[in-house]
Amino acid sequence: MTKRTKKSEYTDLDKELDIEAFRDSIIDFFGTVPDPRSQNNLTYKLEHIFFIILSAILAGANSINKIALFSKAKKKWITNFIPLEKTPSYGIFWWTLVRIKPDLMRQLLEEWFENVPGELKNQILAIDGKRLCGTQSDDPLKHFVHLVSLFSVDSGLILKQQPVDNKSNEITAIPVLFEGINIEGAVITSDAMGCQKNIAEQICEKGADYVLALKGNTGLIYDEVLNYFQQAEQVNYEGVDCTVYEEKDTGHGRIVSRLVRCVQDLKWLPQAGEWKNLKSLIEVVSTRTEKGKTSIEQRYYITSLNDVAQRLAKIIRCHWGIENNLHRQLDVNFLEDDSSVNTGYAAENLATFRRMALNILGSRKGLSDRRQRAAWDEDYLSSLVRSFFIKSF
Q: Any idea where the domains of the chain sit in the sequence?
């Protein structure tokens, strides 16, 4: 890109060179995706269609129909970047999304992240699954789409996603998330579905640590841990070597307190040696008071970290960032659960485009305002798409 120091020096030639570089970056980024269409008489290049879809979603389009409307309304803006006499119609977008294999789109999401500066050391990476409710059908031949994501709580970026096989569950999808990505030094968190011995071992072998939720599906270790903390409570934790941390939240008419205890002496635990690098057990007692009613919930975790209760409490709380900053944003701002598109590969491909857009826009507060601004302010929209493609090279 042409270097410039003052706005007055940004000549028409500089502008044209910038646009040409941007066009090349679009072709390079999407050009690796095989085009399933017949190569005879193609009016639109695949990378140009993808560019319009991504731009439309950034600017507030939540359906294929709205993408087509964006394509028509923003013709002048689109043709400023890519050489088209007319922009694609609804049918072009529909057939493209239906026929492109989703594993190729997932690869693009991963390749984009590989070129983002920074490392994952000391970051909290949360794993959780999300079912696209709108894809459920009474037709046994049409399966709903269920995606498992690896989400960086600190940066708000979706690092990777993997579909759950229709005849399986998240347990088989989670190990794939760690393939081809360097998670060394990170802390991986998961709910009880990811609390498996092989997953804990894989995390440790890649140089990361884990904090995994324990529930009944984990077998005897859950029973032993539950019994241990129940007996400790009966004697008011007298003689129990543990670190303790308590925090309290107030707001919206409710009071929530969390008492976190961490035990590192595991000599008594028969299953301790079965879990790779298992160092500590955690109990979280949540007390919630709302409208004069109080409820108590107890949750348990295992971890490879040898740390105090205060830091472990923060890690456990951060895990729910994937629910608030990813799943909730996709449902509230992108209306993902309202989308009933379920023909061919369209549902998962659209889901990947939404996640690309979320990575560009950021999952912090004000996402709806940023999408609205992208719809109204073409300069802002241009800066968003430029940052995505230029960051990729």
A: 7-100+363-391, 114-328
